[in-house]
Amino acid sequence: MSPTSARITAVDTFDVRFPTSRELDGSDAMNPDPDYSAAYVVLRTDADDGLEGHGFTFTIGRGNDVQVAAIEALRHHVLGRSVDELCADPGTLNRDLIGDSQLRWLGPEKGVMHMAIGAVVNALWDLAAKRARKPLWRFLADAEPQWLVSQIDFRYIADALTPQEALELLQLGRHGATEREALLRTNGYPGYTTSPGWLGYSDEKLTRLARQAVADGFTQIKLKVGADLADDVRRCRTAREAIGPGIRMAIDANQRWNVGEAVEWTRALAEFDPYWVEEPTSPDDVLGHAAIRKAVAPVKVATGEHVQNRIVFKQLLQAGAIDVLQIDAARVGGVNENLAILLLAAKFGVPVCPHAGGVGLCELVQHLSMFDYVALSGTTENRVIEYVDHLHDHFIDPVVLREGHYMAPTAPGFSAMMRAESLAEFTYPDGAFWAADLAQGKGAAA
């Protein structure tokens, strides 16, 4: 079939779950037993090139079936569409999905439906980058600023960022982009690791993994906090002793506290020199974050992994509520909305340090940060991408870390494609692992 007549022929979904709760990987004060999961989508076409678009959104086990159902509810917007037209202008699909009035009623632009939109939109960007034979970060960095602006929905954010301002930021970002791309390919993008800091880990495991992180070249680690103050004091002391004074240590409460508690708890841990406190309260509480930031300085305030859309990010920035903005590749409506958020952060001069870990979140978000460095903000100063060392082996193009830095992906696409054998083993409930598990009466993810 000629490329010009190629159509989307299938939108296949998979409920993929990994039993991470059994080793307490991912455990924190609000999520004690997560089974890291992906509501996974594959866009198939009838083009002769055989390329597919892969995308997903991240959950922690039960409820992944709800997320898959939400993706399936979008199928009719995608099937039969021209591949050429969609890849030339992914924003059209983004607008169509967000504009479905009856599904929009379930949000609007937040929650399960918005995450489903992000999964489908990200799959389209994966396909578009593959067809261009470029990794997504370079596909974006090479794009004309005017085209990138056309991909962004400025509704509800134009009071903080106009299309003209976005265009000027992107035009300015092109200066020196070639040199920065060369540096990126050589040096990579700085990362930090949360691997030592899960709340369920013993002090011995925390110490061992913290020392290993420093040996691996990381200059920042992160600890989960918020369940018990005395326990947090002990764990922060243990971690600081393990890494020494020259390594940054962030703390993450995962939304556990009221505003007053956040202030008191952070001050109680201040002796261990935390670099930032992450998600100290509800991600929707803009003024609460602002009050916490004022009260706990010089400890920085970071949030974003559960911020539901560009509008809330806009308000956090307008209110001066955060020192660090944390995008998530799969929480909002995909690449298009993350472009808007990156531009908002650039306009307000706030560094972006993405949330990652999970299933494939490291693989995805590295592309967004690398685009930001090469073609928008032009700097990695005080910017790091979160890294967690598990589940990467399930991806065809997993992240590569060298001396604490993400190395730039070279394979075309969004690094989103999972291995066929992983889908066969961990799709719930009929994959080989879960079928055997359920037959033994375990079924922890059910």
Automatic annotation (TrEMBL):
User: What region holds the Mandelate racemase/muconate lactonizing enzyme C-terminal domain?
Assistant: 203-299
Q: Which cofactor does it need?
A: Mg(2+)
Looking up SUPFAM superfamilies in the UniProt record yields:
Enolase C-terminal domain-like, Enolase N-terminal domain-like
Instruction: Give the matching InterPro entries.
Output: Enolase-like_C_sf, Enolase-like_N, Enolase_C-like, L-fuconate_dehydratase, Mandelate_racemase_C, Mandelate_racemase_N_dom, RHMD-like
* E.C. no: 4.2.1.68
Is Oxidoreductase one of the keywords UniProt gives this record?
no
What organism is recorded for this protein?
Streptomyces rectiviolaceus
Record keywords: Translocase included? Answer: no
**Which reaction(s) does the protein catalyse, per the Swiss-Prot or TrEMBL entry?**
L-fuconate = 2-dehydro-3-deoxy-L-fuconate + H2O
The identity of this protein, by name, is L-fuconate dehydratase
EC top class named in words: lyase
Q: Which UniProt keywords apply?
A: Lyase, Magnesium, Metal-binding
